[in-house]
Amino acid sequence: MSNPELDKLISDTEKYLQNVKTFYPFNIYIEKDIKPAAVKQYKEPIVEDVKVKYDAAPVEEIKPETKVVIEKDLFGNEVTVKEEWEFAETLEQMNEKICNCQNCALGATRTKFVFGVGNPNADIVLVGEAPGADEDKQGFPFVGRAGQLLNQILAAVELKREEVYICNILKCRPPGNRNPLPEEIVQCEPYLKHQLNLIKPKLILALGKFAADTLLNLNQPLNKMRGKIHHYSGIKTMVTYHPAALLRNQQWKRPTWEDMKQFKKLYDEIKK
Ligand code: SF4
User: Fold this and answer.
1) Arithmetic mean of pLDDT, 69-91
2) Residue 114 class from Cβ within 10 Å (0-12 exposed, 13-18 middle, 19+ buried)?
3) Closest CA to 208 of 90, 126, 86
4) Which of 15, 143, 253, 270 fits 23 for a cystine, CB–CB 3.0-4.6 Å?
5) Could you tell me which residue, 73 or 42, shows the higher pLDDT?
6) Whose alpha carbon is nearest atom 5 of ligand 1?
């Protein structure tokens, strides 16, 4: 006999396990022919209670490090000259103004400029390191296998890619996927800050050690930066592994799942 409550419970559990499966390299099978009493016992999905540590870091205002040039006009008065993109009021305007950027050597070697993609009013911004080969070809961040895994990771905590914003610290691919150089970051990071000013997210998730190092400037192993709430430009920031690293290191999927649960919990609290 059909039991709607039991069917719903099984369906919810199935969905939950499919999400969790993203983080584990084994298959999960649902045994549906079980007694209601047994189901009741497992009514609460097996989720560890995650304690989020709160740092007492002060919330600063977002102050983009715009390039401000002081010049003298014909009458000897000092005038402030900003670059055009600094006046952009939307992401589209900003993209148009900087998509031909040649401020560092990567401008000459890129195939496509990778500005960022997603909801321009997102509460969450995901920040990676720099475009890889697929991103450089297509002009969008987190495409290819790492991008697919990122979609699954988001889905596992009931977030859709379309509701967040995704970008990188660098907008152009370093040749051979080498690490970005300090001078490239100095040139490119103001773009990220202006993007954040326009989006005004409530949370940032730094993907991978490089992004975390650049945003937080802590010079710590990634493992030490995980599980805590940091701040970047006044925005609460958490850290987890880069999806590309997870493809190479299956053992990091479990800690990533823990990070994502913490991140989602914080997001739910902020939304309330
Ligand atoms: S990496 Fe950034 S600073 Fe360098 S050329 Fe590309 S957009 Fe300009």
Assistant:
1) 80
2) buried
3) 126
4) 253
5) 73
6) 107
The SS3 call for residue 201 is coil
| CA 184 – ligand 1 centroid, Å | 7
List all residues 6 or more positions away from 231 whose beta carbon is below 8 Å from its beta carbon. 55, 57, 58, 59, 60, 237
Q: What is the DSSP letter of 104?
A: S
Mention every residue, 6+ apart, whose C-beta is less than 8 A from residue 72.
78, 79
Instruction: Specify the pLDDT at position 41.
Output: 45
Report the pLDDT averaged over residues 136-142.
97
Q: Does residue 205 contact residue 261 with C-beta atoms inside 8 Å?
A: no
Burial class (CB in 10 A: 0-12, 13-18, 19+), 102: exposed
Render pLDDT for 177-201 as a digit per residue (tens, 0 to 9). Answer: 899 999 999 999 999 999 999 999 9
Answer with the residue of higher pLDDT: 178 or 68.
178
Q: What CATH number was assigned to the domain covering residues 69-271?
A: 3.40.470.10
Q: How much is the average pLDDT of 72-82? A: 74
CA of 85 from ligand 1 middle (Å) equals 13
Pocket of ligand 1 contains residue 256 by CB under 6 Å: no
For the chain, the structural domain boundaries read 69-271
User: Token match 């950027």: residue?
Assistant: 101
Phi-psi region of 103 (alpha: psi -120 to 50; beta: other; left: phi over 0): alpha
> For residue 82, what pLDDT is reported?
81
Q: Which two tokens stand for residue 197?
A: 């000013």
